[in-house]
Design a protein that fits this description.
Number of strands: 8
Number of domains: 2
Helix content: 55-70%
GO molecular function: metallopeptidase activity
Distance between the termini: 36 Å
Number of helices: 11
Organism: Flavobacterium aquariorum
Strand content: 5-15%
Strand order of the largest sheet: 1-4-8-7
Shape: globular
Structural class: alpha/beta
Pfam families: Zn_peptidase
Order of helices and strands: EEHHEHEEEEEHHHHHHHH
Membrane topology: Single-pass membrane protein
Biased composition (Basic and acidic residues): 7-17
Length: 286
C-alpha cells in the first residue's frame, strides 16, 4: 500500500511501551464494567457515582513504566496515523455527499492490556471499537497472530482492512445503526440476536470495502496484492474458519461476525460498487 507523504491524523494516541507498574489489585477492568452498569441502570444516581468510580479507576492505573518505541514501532505508528487520516477524509466526503454530519473517532494503540469505557481488554480481544468513548483500540501484535495462527497473508493492507472495519463500527454509531440493533436484540432469542450481530459486522466489512474504493480514487494507494491481503484477512476471521480452527467444528447458530465467504463478499461489494446505499446487510440476510 502506498501511504508515505500523506496527511497523518491527530486523533491517534500511542500507548505502546507503557505498562502498568502501580496499583492493580482490584483490576481496572472490573471498575470499568461497574461504570457501564451504573450508566445503563443507575438513572440519575449515575451522574454522582460514575465520576467517583472513574477517579478510583484512574488511581488504580496511574503508575506506569515506559520504554522507548523501536524504529519499527515508530514507522508502524506513522502508518496507522496515515490510515486514520485516510478514513477521516473519506468518511467526511461520504457524509457530505449524503447531507450528514461526520465526527471523527479516536484511535489508541496499546500493548498487552487497556482500559476503555467498555471495560478492560487485552491483546486477546483483537482490534475493537468502543462506542462508549468512540475510540478504536488496536494491539498491533494481533496481525502477526492473524498470520501465524489463522493463515492470513499479512501485509500492510490487512491492517488497513481491519482498521477500516473498526472505523465502520464508528460510522454505525454515528448513524444510529448500532443503537437500533442493540435495542432490537433485547427481545430476541440468542439465535436471532446473533443474526443481528452478523448483519452489523458484515456491514462494517462493506464499509471497509467502500473506504477502499473511495481512497483508491482519491490517493491511488493500492499496490499489487493489496486486495488479496484484505480478502485473506476477512477469510481468516470468518466465524466458520475460527470455529473450525479453535474447536474443530462449526456451529452456525453461534455465529456473530459472519462466515468467511460472507465477509469477503461484503468487502468486495463495497469496494466494487462504491455506493454507500448498497450496504444494507440486514434486509438481504433476513
Amino acid at each position: 500500500m502506498k501511504w508515505i507523504g500523506r496527511r497523518q491524523s491527530d486523533n491517534v494516541e500511542d500507548r505502546r511501551g507503557m505498562s502498568s507498574g502501580g496499583k492493580t489489585a482490584i483490576g481496572g477492568g472490573i471498575i470499568g464494567i461497574i461504570i457501564l452498569l451504573v450508566n445503563a441502570f443507575g438513572g440519575e444516581n449515575a451522574q454522582m457515582i460514575t465520576p467517583i468510580l472513574e477517579q478510583f479507576n484512574q488511581q488504580q492505573t496511574t503508575q506506569t513504566e515506559t520504554r522507548p518505541l523501536t524504529d519499527a514501532e515508530k514507522t508502524e505508528g506513522e502508518f496507522v496515523k496515515t490510515l486514520m487520516a485516510d478514513n477521516e477524509d473519506v468518511w467526511t466526503q461520504i457524509f457530505e455527499e449524503n447531507d450528514l454530519t461526520f465526527e471523527a473517532p479516536k484511535l489508541i494503540l496499546f500493548s498487552g492490556q487497556v482500559e476503555t469505557a467498555c471495560g478492560g481488554a487485552s491483546s486477546a480481544s483483537g482490534p475493537f471499537y468502543c462506542p462508549g468513548d468512540r475510540t478504536i483500540y488496536m494491539d498491533m501484535s494481533f496481525f502477526e497472530e492473524l498470520r501465524t495462527k489463522f493463515g492470513a497473508k499479512g501485509g500492510d493492507f490487512a491492517v488497513a482492512y481491519v482498521m477500516a472495519h473498526e472505523f465502520g463500527h464508528h460510522i454505525q454509531t454515528l448513524l444510529g445503526t448500532s443503537g437500533k440493533v442493540h435495542q432490537l436484540q433485547q427481545n430476541k432469542s440468542e439465535k436471532e440476536s446473533n443474526k443481528l450481530s452478523v448483519s452489523l459486522e458484515l456491514q462494517a466489512d462493506f464499509y471497509a470495502g467502500l473506504w477502499t474504493h473511495y481512497n483508491e480514487n482519491k490517493n491511488a494507494m493500492l499496490e499489487e496484492g493489496d486486495i488479496e491481503e484484505a480478502l485473506s484477512a476477512a477469510n481468516a476471521v470468518g466465524d466458520d474458519a475460527i470455529q473450525k480452527k479453535m474447536q474443530g467444528q462449526v456451529v452456525p447458530d453461534s455465529f456473530t461476525h459472519g462466515t468467511s465467504e460472507e465477509r469477503m463478499y461484503w468487502f468486495k461489494r463495497g469496494f466494487v460498487s462504491g455506493d454507500f446505499k448498497k450496504g444494507d446487510t440486514f434486509s438481504e440476510l433476513n
